[in-house]
Amino acid sequence: MKTVHYTRILLWTPIILIGYFIAAQVGFNIAFLNSQVSPVWPPEGVGLSSLLLLGPVALPGIYLGATFANFYNNPHFQTAFIIGIGNTLSSYVNYSIIKRVTEKTDPLYSTKDLIYFLSIGTFPGSFISAVLGVTSLWYWDFLSSELYFNVFFTWFSGEMLGFLIVAPLLYVWFYPKSKLNLELSKQLELFLWIIIVYISGSIAFSDEWPLLFLPIPFVIVTSIRFRQFGATLSTVVLSYTAVTLTIEGKGVFARRDASGLSINDSLIFLDAFLFCISGIAYFLVTATRERERAQETSLKSLQVLNELKEKANEELEQKVLERTAVIEEQRIEIEKQLDMAKRIQESLFPQKEIVPNGVEILFKNIPMMKVGGDLYDIIWKQDKQELGVFICDVSGHGIPAALLSALVKTSLEKWKEDPKDLKESLESIRTQIIPNLREHFVTASLVHLQTETGVLTFARAGHFPLFIIRNSGAIFSLKPMGRIITPIFDILAEEEKFQLEKGDLIVMLTDGLTEARDPSSLQMFGEDNLLQLVCDLRSQPLITIRDEVFQFVIHLSGGIRAIQDDLTLGLIRYTGV
């Protein structure tokens, strides 16, 4: 295996080096401010597409190509060495991010993958390359301090355009399983549309006819007609035309100030325009490809169905009966497993009644299926007179959500040890569960109550506010900052304190209650209606309030079998010590 690996490196390194060098010369031809700073840096597209197509095998070729190209343009070994590192790191960092978040290498495979590519698949690497490259030029006196940030911005935007425009083009046209098989007439048609895009782009960025909108319909038509091949080729042609004319001082994006043409100001607006155009083209492609895959799947399903019908014979009825029996056995087995899963999940909830001093507390959970993604937990520290309450809602339903809620349960140890530290507890939960979240997310809330003093502390991660209903009927809501638990963003939770009074009723819930719908009108129950119902019943025992709320929601939904989400309600009444 190692021999094969080294053979691939030896095979591809000179090819990538040559491609990188040629692309660099294109970039240097439109360089300004410094001979090594270009408003568009096509080699980054070569580097990223090479990694997407070949994997880390491409790294030696990228580094050697970047170092050699920069040294050839400016024979200074130190800067060429560091710029080569920056160019290589930029491609590898963006490649790693794309591979991790999309689990694919095709940035135009789906709309979701495209969004990841446009948002976080270009920026980090561009920033790294700009920092290393511009700093090396400044350190060795190829760049004055006054021009540092101008050159930095130009370098950064050039990297971004290289990743955004050139990488998809090279990936699409060199991907071995994505060949453009067109007859001669179609090839001529594609060539004609590209010529039209070039001409319309030249007109749009001319001073004589500043018709900026003119290329847009032609890019769209080319993208629809030729999918990813037309989209990538037309955006590259339009981008090259726009950049070269803009840095010549032509077109609506050529901004001028007292000293003449302001390249940086021009690039800000030009980059935004090119981002929008390429984004439109790419989104058309991904949406079309997703629709075609769905149609292919439907067609295959239909073909399988027809084949089954053709094979039907006089034994069909017996086979159907046999299959029905098997399905029934499977259904019974699944029901047994669901019952077992239900018993296991029920064991995750508090198993014995907790009776804290000065507090009445009551929780109830009804999953949409036999198992669900809602979870709550309660701890009572008698010696410290501390009550801790946790509630969360895992996205989705059924067994996947239940498994994740079980994982959340195992992550509560830090909170159980110290129920005061709410922010750290939420971060600890996130740290432990994010490797398994993938497309799921979790919302959660934590409450800490000092029952002797009535001081309540609340923190949340994208969950509902904490509602407090006073004896008078006044309703307070605590809404500290805190983002949902995902693998992408930190929670950044904050804590909010509240002084309880005797008789205060605390309400905790999940969205299954507020989003319950009337099947006839599709009108949601809503947060305001739920709080008003609880407020009207505030003087009743907690069990009465709980039963009334669940009875109303289930009736509104059309019965227990018609609920569309897991239902969880928690009621805490502070009676004072």
From TrEMBL:
GO cellular component: plasma membrane
Stretches that traverse the bilayer: 12-33, 45-64, 76-93, 114-140, 152-176, 188-206, 226-247, 267-285
InterPro entries documented for this protein: Bact_Sigma-Reg, MASE1, PPM-type-like_dom_sf, PPM-type_phosphatase-like_dom
Residue ranges of every copy of the PPM-type phosphatase domain listed in the record: 356-574
Bilayer topology annotation: Multi-pass membrane protein
Sample GO molecular function, one term: phosphatase activity
One Pfam family in the UniProt entry: MASE1
The keyword Glycoprotein is assigned to this record: no
Coiled coil: 299-347
Keywords, alphabetical: Cell membrane, Coiled coil, Hydrolase, Membrane, Transmembrane, Transmembrane helix
Location in the cell: Cell membrane
Species lineage: Bacteria, Pseudomonadati, Spirochaetota, Spirochaetia, Leptospirales
Protein's recorded name: Serine/threonine protein phosphatase
Organism: Leptospira bouyouniensis
Tagged with keyword Coiled coil: yes
Primary localisation category: membrane
